[in-house]
Amino acid sequence: MFGYYLQLAIHSLRRNPVLTGLMVLSIAVGIGASMTTLTVMHLLSGDPLPGRSQHIFYPQVDAVPDGKPHSDPPDKLDYTSAMDLWRAKRSDRQTLVVSSPVKLFAPGVASPALMTSMLSVHGDFFPMFEVPFAYGTGWSAEDDGRHARVAVISSNLNDKLFGGHDSVGKTLHLRDADVRIVGVLKPWRPSPQYYTVAGGRFAQGDTASYYGKPQDVFVPFATGTEINDGHFNYFFCWGTPPTPGHLQNAPCVALQLWVQLDTPAKVADYRRFLADYAAQQQALGRISLPGNARLSSLMQWLDFNRAVPADVRLQSSLALAFLVVCLFNTIGLLLAKFLRHSGEIGVRRALGASRRSIFAQCLTEAGLIGLVGGLLGWALTLIGLWAVRQQPVEYADLVHLDLQMFALTFALALAASLVAGWFPASRASRIAPAIQLKTL
């Protein structure tokens, strides 16, 4: 029966090519606009660490000594709190994170010195965040402890300096120190760059920078603070640092701590530990309000920082509203088309076709329009995504149509056309055959 309805639908659509074209175009434009923005939204709002994000947590402690109640603790930790929590070793894995600009060059390589970004972390950073390696590995806890002069570099920097060849064992000159390369990353693009996300509540929706490219150089935390001392940026300070750019003893927050907790019991235990630590520091007179400590999961932390840029969310809402307008336009065109053929429908009803048959036939025609519109909408989506990739935004090179969104394009087009066709098909199925036969 469906094959018969399909034949009737094709025949009906061919009889009115202009009207059919307008309906297909209406569906296609709505689908193209909405899928372009939904694809960007999908890419920017997904889980950046699927399968592991539920084990990654971000501790916060309010060490600001002003005695005023704060709704939220600072987005980063002061040096004393960060080191205390890290030295306690109450998690399965943990790493401190602080980024800074650094000048570097490779001895013996005919390439000018570069200003790039460096991330100072602990060795657990790489297995915690499943960072992929092309050559070599990260460093060990012993390397962290003895402030080893080693480094891991990005594939991008390896391509620039060493032509993409295995550079493990080669030397890199960072500011005034030499470090030995022990690992080279594969192309790696976390989206967003979750391990440095902070300050989203002060960004007023402008969070596109969270989707920038990862740092080019990774060094042990203590090594980085030694090599680049005096060149670190603070998140904020409640006093004047005695030595600008120096982390130790600065009245500022600048560091991030990430911990891996593999079981719910360990999460609960770490929360108690964090509260106890804040209470202990209050007793020592260093923290004025101990109740403002927090442990967020990775996804909670990204939600708190509203990682997806506000303009992307706004564009998605507007595109969906535009799709609704296109659907109303399609409803009007379908209604006009079906009612235009009321006489034909009346004859079919008089010959024994049931209301259900007329309804199914009309809905099949609407679905066919949706599928053709989805095909054209898919082409428009590809054009829209190409246009997004031309924009000067950090996430532009991430934008592409994956298999999931490809399938959603046609599912949405079919669903939209069926929704649009429901009312016109219902009206057509209620046409009284006797009245139509009198008019023939």
| Spatial strand order of the main sheet | 3-4-9-6-8-7
Q: Biggest β-sheet: count, sense, barrel?
A: 6 strands, mixed, barrel
The H/E string reads HHEEHEEHEHEHEEEHEEHEHHHHHH
Proportion of strand residues: 15-25%
Query: What is the count of helical runs?
Result: 14
Shape: elongated
Main attributes of the structure:
14 helices; 440 residues; six-stranded mixed barrel; elongated; alpha+beta
Describe the 3D structure.
The structure is a single chain. The chain has a six-stranded mixed barrel. α2 (17-45) packs across α13 (403-429) and α12 packs antiparallel against α13 (403-429). Helix content is 48%, strand content 16%. β3 and β4 (114-121) form a beta hairpin. The model has no long low-confidence stretch (mean pLDDT 90). The chain is an alpha+beta fold. It is built from 14 helices and twelve strands.
